[in-house]
Design a protein that fits this description.
The protein is mainly α. It is 83% helix and 0% strand. It starts with a helix and ends in a 6-residue tail after the last helix.
Length: 53
Protein backbone atom coordinates (compact mmCIF):
# COMPACT_ATOMS: atom_id res chain seq x y z
CA UNK A 1 0.00 0.00 0.00
CA UNK A 2 2.90 2.34 0.77
CA UNK A 3 4.24 1.84 -2.76
CA UNK A 4 0.89 2.79 -4.25
CA UNK A 5 0.75 6.01 -2.22
CA UNK A 6 4.36 6.73 -3.10
CA UNK A 7 3.68 6.34 -6.82
CA UNK A 8 0.62 8.56 -6.53
CA UNK A 9 2.64 11.24 -4.74
CA UNK A 10 5.44 10.98 -7.28
CA UNK A 11 2.96 11.40 -10.14
CA UNK A 12 1.50 14.50 -8.49
CA UNK A 13 4.97 15.94 -7.91
CA UNK A 14 6.09 15.34 -11.49
CA UNK A 15 2.88 16.91 -12.80
CA UNK A 16 3.38 20.01 -10.65
CA UNK A 17 7.05 20.39 -11.53
CA UNK A 18 6.40 19.80 -15.25
CA UNK A 19 4.00 22.73 -15.36
CA UNK A 20 6.61 24.87 -13.62
CA UNK A 21 9.38 23.83 -16.03
CA UNK A 22 7.16 24.52 -19.07
CA UNK A 23 6.54 28.07 -17.86
CA UNK A 24 10.10 28.93 -16.78
CA UNK A 25 12.21 27.16 -19.47
CA UNK A 26 15.54 27.94 -17.79
CA UNK A 27 18.20 25.25 -18.26
CA UNK A 28 19.43 25.60 -14.68
CA UNK A 29 15.92 25.20 -13.28
CA UNK A 30 15.29 22.18 -15.50
CA UNK A 31 18.49 20.60 -14.17
CA UNK A 32 17.43 21.21 -10.56
CA UNK A 33 13.99 19.71 -11.21
CA UNK A 34 15.46 16.66 -12.95
CA UNK A 35 17.89 16.06 -10.07
CA UNK A 36 15.04 16.36 -7.57
CA UNK A 37 12.83 13.92 -9.48
CA UNK A 38 15.70 11.42 -9.78
CA UNK A 39 16.31 11.67 -6.03
CA UNK A 40 12.59 11.13 -5.38
CA UNK A 41 12.51 8.03 -7.58
CA UNK A 42 15.63 6.60 -5.90
CA UNK A 43 14.11 7.16 -2.46
CA UNK A 44 10.86 5.52 -3.55
CA UNK A 45 12.79 2.56 -4.96
CA UNK A 46 14.81 2.13 -1.76
CA UNK A 47 11.77 2.37 0.51
CA UNK A 48 9.68 -0.23 -1.36
CA UNK A 49 10.98 -3.08 0.84
CA UNK A 50 10.72 -1.31 4.19
CA UNK A 51 7.99 -2.43 6.55
CA UNK A 52 4.91 -0.28 6.97
CA UNK A 53 4.91 1.56 10.27
Amino acid sequence: MKLLYGLFGAALMVTFLASFVVKVKEPAMIAVVVIGVVMMVIDLWQSRNESDS
